[in-house]
Specification:
Elements (H helix, E strand, L loop, with lengths): L20 H30 L14 H24 L9 H11 L2 H14 L3 E7 L4 E7 L10 E8 L6 H4 L3 H10 L3 H11 L5
Antiparallel strand pairs: 1-2, 1-3
Helix pairs in contact: 1-2, 3-7, 4-6
């Protein structure tokens, strides 16, 4: 049996601005933990291939058990990790500070320019908008993804991650994604974001 991945609890206890406790509970306890469960199920199924207990001869790019598992692996794993990055930077007053603020001003000219661009990327994406430290360029970049395993850039470490799938906001905002994104920015935990940023920019490629 593959080693089980353990889901992480929400890193904050206080209620958020606009985003209800009900939405957070469903988002974390049902959706996120569901990805954790599937990640573990897939890892368990793949272990037989990894240890030579299952036949690798049938591997095929059109359809095979191995292909299906590997495709599901990236979707479930990114579903876990992206949600952890998302939850990690929520739960504070949204007041920008620290080295990350300085880096954003240097990159985008002002915090307001970054916020406008990041929010627009959130409106343009179908799934995720991610401020990441790109280790190839040693620079902050905003990337978007339409699915968990689409749009991500290898070697880029998420710093601020915005979930724009409907499940993140529909209970509280209906179809008003723009209002949800505005409230998301008000809930950002810049202390947590700075911890990730400081660690990420030490990674050398």
């Amino acid at each position: 049996m593959a080693k089980l991945y353990e889901g992480k609890p929400l890193p904050f206890k206080e209620s958020l601005i606009g985003i209800s406790d009900k939405t957070m509970a469903l988002h974390h306890d049902i959706l996120y933990m569901g990805y954790v469960k599937k990640k573990n199920e897939i890892a368990d199924a793949l272990e037989g291939f990894e240890k030579g207990e299952k036949d690798l001869a049938g591997a095929n790019q059109t359809y095979s058990e191995l292909r299906a598992l590997k495709d599901g692996e990236t979707f479930a794993t990114n579903g876990v990790y992206l949600h952890e990055y998302y939850f990690n930077v929520l739960g504070s007053d949204g007041k920008a500070s620290g080295a990350l603020l300085d880096a954003l001003i240097e990159k985008f000219g002002s915090l307001e320019n970054f916020a406008a661009y990041f929010k627009a990327c959130g409106m343009a994406a179908r799934g995720w908008a991610v401020l990441a430290w790109d280790t190839h360029e040693a620079a902050l970049k905003v990337y978007t993804g339409d699915a968990h395993n689409q749009g991500g850039v290898w070697g880029a470490i998420p710093v601020i991650t915005l979930d724009v799938y409907e499940h993140a906001y529909f209970i509280d905002y209906g179809s008003d994604r723009k209002a949800y994104i505005e409230d998301y920015m008000k809930n950002l935990n810049w202390v947590a974001a700075n911890v990730v940023f400081e660690a990420a920019r030490l990674v050398k490629r």
